[in-house]
Amino acid sequence: MELEFHQLEKKYAGLRIADAPRIARLVASLCTHGQQQPVLVVRASGSAGEVERYVLIDGYARVAALGELKRDRVAATVIDLSEADALVLAFRLDRNRVRSAIEEAWLLHELIEAHSIAQRALGPLLGRSASWVSRRLALIAVLPAAAEEAVRAGILPAYAAMKYLVPLARANSAACVQLVTQLGRRRVSVRQLARLYAGWRAGNAAQRQAIVERPWLYLDLDEKQAESAAPADRGTEREQRLLRDLGVLTAICRRVRDALRERETDLPWPTVLRYAWQEAQAGFGAVLAVVVEGGHA
Questions:
Q1: 295 confidence band (pLDDT: 50, 70, 90)
Q2: What is the pLDDT of residues 216-241, one digit of tens each?
Q3: What is the DSSP annotation of 7-68?
Q4: First CA to last CA across the chain, in angstroms?
């Protein structure tokens, strides 16, 4: 069926991170192919009047992309479930889309607080272990609200928040709040947040305070210091590109390792992950073959 936008209640928009690049890709796809997958909705309780209302469960990005195209209708599938059961169903059907750890934590918190589901019941409902539920909830229990909102708005990368802001908040919650506040609405990269956290850990009390008070100044000074400390002979341009790419590859491998550790060992891999791993293995194999052939190993 088709629904008009004014019939939709978007009460669960806060369970997902704002993802402008993904919405842009969906806009391009909608222009080319139209809407290929309906959004999931349930009937809103207490609907009154002539217009029946529906709660949007899954498909917030698709609705946002349609809005960018000035559309006011969306193809939808109505599921005859409670809102809580529908949220659980959407999560279990979402195997080919990777949610960040903090998005998973938001869903768990919503099910507990808004729908009165006991924490011990969440693992079986979602197909996860009790330890997975506890670890996810612990993340948002530590992370300050200001940091959560920055992640939700897409200003702070979710991975960086989990990797650097969570340990910072555990060590000094006030410093974490101040850092996020001073970063403002300007987008920060994973690498930049890593440098801020490394500088904070290595600094004394005065240096730590300076970092959280003026983080962008610290990043500028740190970048200039790194450039001045670089060796005079920087090699050829091709070697420098290779050096940067190897550094990126190293960082990506670390992130993949951390993500794999977060997965439950007894869960099957989604098809998209298995295919991606096969492609990565092929890429590593091709690089290794060149290294061995050239005698660089």
A1: low
A2: 999 999 888 877 765 655 567 777 78
A3: GEE-TTGGGS---HHHHHHHHHHHHHH---S-EEEEEPTT--SSS--EEEEE-HHHHHHHHH
A4: 60
